[in-house]
């Protein structure tokens, strides 16, 4: 109870406590008086001037800020009208157990719901036309199930959780806990899955070749290493998830989509990872005169730049002049949505975007298939030392004395070259480079420089680890790569030996310690199941991909 100061009464002389009139109060139907609790409200008056004395209150607490006295309040109880137990009073005069037995707060709420599920793409229909991708017992599926319930806004949702069912039972059970008017109850809602093909899947089921848009990806080079790299990027970013069908073609891949917007989005992804140019066309399939509806088939032709990493390039005179007279002989060090070029004789470098490249459209003077192995007889760092760091890679200019490995011991042909690999090469190492002295080149751009350019005899590209690879040949790698599910149009035209050689070279590029950026852009998965003998050999001298960079391939096992 709280007693407020009564300003109508005078305070007691020599005290800080005023007189209070007696008040009567009601507690749960009973009447009590302040005077009936003498021990509770008894106090003793003490002079204020005596600072050594205090007002002693046995069970009362004084609020200094408000100047009020707070007294503990006793809440009364009544008997339940049904079971007769003591309870706090409420409007129904019934305890919580009796209220639960008499009142059903789940009345009017849905307990059985039918949902449409596409078995081909594993999506659920969100009326009227949207299809939602959700995994089994995921947060997205739980949100979808709760939103399908009607009249749920009349109660307060406390909790929602899945109840385990067999995945093949076509049933989803969700336990909901709701609250209404102070009552709380949990009940189970059962969702029945009805298989219903979505529009795109039904079109494919009726006719697998009935696509709406296709993307024809091509690169006119003699190897498929670019497509191996591009395949891993597509898998990492899940860029081809909307593709109906993927077909491997000669010098390229075809992607088929059920919607034009899916093909356009896929082309935007390609532009962000490789330098491309494209053109599109459409063909009329049908036309409804009454509703003026037209059905087209769209075809997008995408061409990837033929310039690849480690290619030797002779820049056109106009382009070389616009880039500050770099080159004209340059090496391609990296290809993304732009092309990184390096002058191996001066360490000058530049980047060409897609528009700049296709404006000039130059080709490679020599490709990686024309690399020749050399042995380093002597190497000296230039004075003063010239060093450059380009995109995380380090280069150091040096003068080297090299000889062809095939001529070593047969003749005395020795070449003196300037190279950008001074930080890697030592005397006795092997290096791969282009033999311009014996090459038969008919490049028109190089012919224009014949009078003003002294063409070097050898251009070194990278250090060779062929001896190490020969020791590891036949031993398993400790990682694996995933692949797209694609059809092969004409297996008779596929050179399996050449494709296997290209894939082996692509894996060596991944494992190259000098190029960690390439591994960073890909997803390498650790092999889980290996025999003990294989594991021992892998621990000794397996491929050089660091173990901490490998991903654990996710495998969901039902342990219930």
UniProtKB/TrEMBL annotation:
Subcellular location, record wording: Cytoplasm; Nucleus
Domain 60S ribosomal export protein NMD3 SH3 residues, every copy: 307-354
Keywords: Cytoplasm, Nucleus, Protein transport, Transport
This protein's record includes keyword Ligase: no
Main subcellular location: cytoplasm
InterPro entries according to UniProt: Nmd3, Nmd3_N, NMD_SH3, OB_NMD3
One Gene Ontology CC term in the entry: nucleus
Entry GO MF terms: ribosomal large subunit binding
Keyword Transmembrane helix: no
Spans annotated as Disordered: 1-32
Domain Nmd3 N-terminal residue range list: 80-304
GO process terms (BP): protein transport; ribosomal large subunit export from nucleus
Function: Acts as an adapter for the XPO1/CRM1-mediated export of the 60S ribosomal subunit.
Family: Belongs to the NMD3 family.
Name listed for the protein in its UniProt record: 60S ribosomal export protein NMD3
Native source species: Linum tenue
């Amino acid at each position: 109870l709280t007693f407020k100061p009564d300003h109508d009464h005078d305070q007691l002389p020599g005290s800080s406590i005023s007189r209070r009139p007696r008040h009567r109060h009601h507690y749960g139907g009973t009447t009590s008086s302040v005077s009936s609790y003498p021990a509770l409200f008894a106090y003793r008056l003490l002079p204020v001037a005596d600072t050594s004395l205090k007002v002693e209150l046995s069970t009362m607490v004084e609020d200094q800020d408000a100047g009020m006295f707070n007294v503990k309040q006793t809440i009364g109880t009544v008997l339940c009208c049904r079971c007769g137990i003591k309870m706090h009073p409420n409007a129904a005069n019934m305890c919580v157990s009796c209220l639960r037995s008499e009142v059903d707060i789940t009345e009017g709420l849905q307990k059985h719901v039918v949902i449409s599920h596409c078995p081909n793409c594993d999506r659920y229909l969100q009326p009227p036309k949207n299809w939602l991708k959700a995994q089994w017992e995921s947060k997205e599926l739980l949100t979808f199930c709760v939103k399908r319930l009607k009249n749920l806004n009349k109660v307060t949702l406390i909790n929602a959780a899945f109840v385990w069912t067999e995945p093949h039972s076509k049933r989803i059970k969700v336990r909901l806990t709701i609250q209404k008017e102070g009552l709380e109850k949990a009940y189970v809602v059962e969702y029945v899955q009805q298989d219903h093909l979505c529009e795109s899947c039904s079109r494919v089921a009726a006719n697998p070749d009935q696509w709406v848009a296709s993307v024809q990806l091509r690169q006119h080079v003699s190897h498929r290493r670019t497509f191996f790299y591009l395949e891993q990027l597509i898998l990492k970013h899940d860029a081809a998830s909307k593709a109906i069908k993927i077909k491997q073609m000669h010098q390229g891949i075809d992607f088929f989509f059920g919607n034009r917007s899916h093909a356009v989005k896929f082309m935007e992804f390609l532009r962000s990872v490789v330098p491309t140019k494209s053109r599109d066309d459409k063909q009329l399939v049908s036309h409804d005169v009454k509703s003026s509806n037209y059905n087209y088939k769209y075809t997008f032709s995408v061409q990837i730049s033929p310039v690849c990493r480690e290619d030797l390039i002779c820049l056109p005179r106009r382009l070389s002049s616009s880039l500050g007279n770099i080159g004209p002989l340059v090496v391609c060090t990296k290809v993304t949505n732009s092309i990184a070029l390096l002058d191996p004789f001066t360490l000058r470098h530049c980047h060409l975007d897609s528009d700049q490249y296709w404006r000039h459209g130059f080709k490679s003077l020599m490709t990686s298939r024309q690399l020749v192995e050399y042995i380093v007889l002597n190497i000296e760092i230039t004075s003063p030392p010239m060093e450059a760091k380009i995109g995380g890679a380090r280069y150091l200019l040096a003068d080297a004395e090299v000889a062809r490995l095939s001529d070593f011991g047969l003749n005395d042909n020795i070449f003196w070259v300037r190279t950008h690999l001074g930080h890697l090469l030592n005397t006795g190492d092997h290096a791969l480079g282009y033999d311009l002295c014996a090459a038969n080149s008919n490049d028109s751009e190089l012919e224009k420089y014949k009078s003003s350019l002294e063409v070097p005899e050898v251009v070194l590209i990278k250090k060779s680890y062929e001896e190490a690879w020969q020791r590891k040949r036949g031993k398993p790698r400790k990682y694996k790569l995933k692949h797209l599910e694609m059809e092969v149009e004409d297996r008779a035209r596929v050179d399996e030996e050449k494709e296997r050689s290209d894939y082996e070279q692509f894996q060596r590029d991944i494992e190259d310690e000098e190029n960690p950026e390439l591994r960073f852009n890909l997803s390498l998965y650790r092999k889980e199941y290996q025999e003990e003998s294989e594991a021992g050999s892998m621990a000794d001298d397996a491929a050089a991909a660091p173990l901490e960079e490998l991903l654990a391939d996710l495998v969901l096992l039902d342990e219930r």
